[in-house]
């Protein structure tokens, strides 16, 4: 990785750590879409069951979506406060690109399975999700900025005692 590409202070936060870019957040929110629907359904008390049945007709699809979204939610929680967490989280953060890629590839496999069940009939929602997943996989695979995000050194917060 060529670190000279990212020497501008705009790429770092106030603690000196690499700032996550917009595509990192979009890919995490894309993977965490089941969590977003689940939280919105939990907040809207009476309509929660109806809302879940609209987006996830089968419970297995919801549970698989929650499982695939869990690594993305964990990476989103780590992204802002990585300097405060113990060293173990740094090791997990280093594998973040691989974790996102595996989650997106599993999501692609589930979407392909869903399309096979529907006998490959065309729906705009399915096509949009499939196109976005393919685009995010290609972006994460080729992006030097995402590679820099997960490989940049992490500065720790000093504890004053």
Topology, pairings included?
Blueprint: H1 22-31, H2 33-43, H3 48-55, H4 59-80, H5 87-94, H6 96-117, H7 124-142, H8 144-151
Describe this structure in words.
The protein has 161 residues and is an all-alpha fold. Helices cover 67% and strands 0% of the residues. The chain starts with 21 loop residues before the first helix and ends in a 10-residue tail after the last helix.
Key features?
mainly alpha, about 0% strand
Question: Mind telling me the C-alpha Rg?
Answer: 18 Å
Strand content: under 5%
Q: Note the main sheet.
A: none
The dominant shape is globular
Q: How much is the average pLDDT?
A: 82
Number of strands: 0
Question: In DSSP terms, counting alpha (H) and pi (I) runs of 4 or more, how many helices?
Answer: 8
Low-confidence stretches: none
How do the helices and strands follow one another from N- to C-terminus? HHHHHHHH
Structural class assignment:
mainly alpha
Euclidean distance between termini CA atoms = 37 Å
Classify the helix fraction into a percent range.
55-70%
Care to give the gist of this entry?
The chain is an all-alpha fold and 161 residues long. Helix content is 67%, strand content 0%. The chain is built from eight helices and no strands.
